[in-house]
Amino acid sequence: MRPACWLLAVLAVGCAHGASATAPDDVTRMMAGPVARDVAAQAPEAWVEVARLADAARSLRGNERVAAEAELALALEWAQSVARRAAADHARAADDASNAALAQEGDGFAAETARLLDASRRLAASRVQNAAVRAPIAAPRDAAHRAALQADLARQTELMLAAAEFLGADGADLQRARAASAGPGGDGVATAAAALRRAEALLEAARRRAPVEGETDAVRLQASLSANEGVEAYRDARGVIAVLHGLFAGARLAPTSAGRVAVLARVLRAHPSTPVRIESFASAPTRAAATSLAQAQATALRGAVEHAGADVAHVQAAGYARTPSAGETDRVEVVLLGGRTE
User: Fold this and answer.
1) Sheet holding 232-235, edge to edge
2) 90-121 pLDDT tens trace
3) What is the Cα–Cα distance from 216 to 135, expressed in whole angstroms?
4) For the whole model, what pTM was predicted?
C-alpha cells in the first residue's frame, strides 16, 4: 500500500472511533428521554427502580449489556404506566376536592336561600300587620276594642319618637309630635294613627340626617336572629327587632338567659356603630312599679352584653309598663335602628 493510502485509512479508522466514543449509548439515551423525565417527576418510587437498573446496565458488556438494556426498556414502560396512573389519581383527587367544594357551596347557598325566604315571609307578615294598624277603622267592633287599639297605636308612637330622639331628631319637632299625639281628637283611634304616621316620618327624617355607618343588611340580620332558639325577629319602621321572653327573674337575669345574651352580644359586636335600643316591657301592681322594674331589666341586659364583650356606647336602655292588650306578655325587645325596612 502506498504511504498516502495508508495514511488515509488510518485517519478514517480514527474518525470512526471518535464518532462512536461521543455518540450516547442506549442506556444514556433512554435515561435522558421524555419518558424517563415524566417518570422522575410523577412516579419517584418507580424512578428509583429504573435508575438502579440503568446503573447496573452501564457496568455490563456484550450480551449481558444487551439483555440489561432490554430489561431497562421494559422497566421504563412499567414506570411510565405507574406515572400515568399517579397523574390520573392526582387529577381525580383534584376533581373530587372541587366537587366537594361545589357541593358545600351549594349547601350553603340552599341554606342561605331558605333563611332569606323565611325572612321574606316574616317581612310580608309584618307589612300586613303594619297595614292593618294604619288602615282606617270604619266599623270598630266595640269600645273596648277601640280603646285597646288606641293604646297600642300610642305605644308604637312613643317607641317611634324615642328612636327618633336617639338618632338626634330636632327637639322642637319631637315636642310638637308628642303634643299632637296626646291632644284631643274627635276620633281617638284616627288621631292616634295620624300621630304614628307623623312619628314614623320624624324617625325617617332623623335617619336621613344622621345615616348609620355601614348600613346593616336587614334581611340577613333578621334571618340570623330568627335562627337562634328563643329569639323572635321582625322588622318595622324602626329597624330589626329581636324579641326575647323569659330573660328575667324579677330585675335579675335568669340563669337560662346566658345563651341569648351571648347571641345579642355577638350581634352587637358585628354592628358596632349601629344605634341600639334595649326596651323592656314588664308588669307590676302599679304602672310606676312596672316602669321601674322594666328600666332595671333593660339596664341589667345592657350591662350583661357589655360584660360579654359588646361596645354599648351606642346602646340605650329603656323600660316601659306593659300595656294590658290581649295576649301581650312581659318581654324584651332589642331594636337595631340601622336595619331599615325597605
Assistant:
1) 232-235, 240-244, 331-336, 276-282, 315-321
2) 888 888 887 887 777 767 666 666 666 666 66
3) 29
4) 0.58
